[in-house]
Amino acid sequence: MKANVSKSWSPIILPEFKKEYFKELTAFVTKEYNTNTCFPATEDIFAAFNYSSFNTTKIVIIGQDPYHGPNQANGLCFSVKDGIKHPPSLINIFKELESDLNIPYPKSGNLERWAKQGVLLLNATLTVRAHEAGSHQKKGWETFTDTIIKKISDEKEGVIFLLWGGFAKKKAKLIDTKKHHILTSGHPSPLSANRGYWFGNKHFSTANTILKDSGKTLIEW
């Protein structure tokens, strides 16, 4: 794995690389990438930590694992590369964004623009085998990303965590609610959204209201 991370994340991330669980994870991921088609590209595995620095992170969105179709995953949860057809969950995210903030539906599904403003787009599992959702779960990634979430909770204040769906909501136990804000809703996947658990959550406007009240720069969603 190419562990390219920004300097601000290094004190948090690099110690994890030395732990036994991460060595085993690295061996597993390396073998998977050598013997199967996996996503994202190796240079994008840690992309979430290269756009949003630790110091500037003010919103955290937690996904489950990367898209497993060709040319989709770019290392940021729910995001796809420029020019790629928007997956169903991303379509529903953009529809909610459209109705919540009255802005045009975005042409590009690449969420780097969010990440550069301090939105950490973190999948709990950072890699996946092609066409096999969840194939790299329970191999050590969750230990790593739970550590990241806990460190953010412990060492920062006033971060807004957007927890969409049952899986993400389980991460609430890692977050100090006395110091941070948690917004929860159903998952943007069609199954959840069509049952009324996603649309109308107004998380984008609510997050910006919290940022405004805290004297922080708003996100240009």
Describe the structure.
This protein has 221 residues and is α/β, with parallel strands linked by helices. The chain is built from nine helices and six strands. Strand 5 (160-164), helix 7 and strand 6 form a beta-alpha-beta unit. It is found in: Cytoplasm. Belongs to the uracil-DNA glycosylase (UDG) superfamily. UNG family. The active site is at 65 (proton acceptor). Its main location: cytoplasm.
Q: Which percent bin holds the helix content?
A: 25-40%
Query: Looking at this structure, what is the CATH superfamily?
Result: Uracil-DNA glycosylase-like domain
Strand tally is 6
Please state the second-level CATH architecture: 3-Layer(aba) Sandwich
List the helices and strands and how they pair.
Blueprint: H1 10-17, H2 20-35, E1 38-39, H3 48-51, E2 59-63, H4 88-101, H5 112-115, E3 119-123, E4 128-129, H6 141-155, E5 160-164, H7 165-169, E6 181-185, H8 190-193, H9 203-213
Parallel strand pairs: 2-3, 2-5, 5-6
Antiparallel strand pairs: 1-4
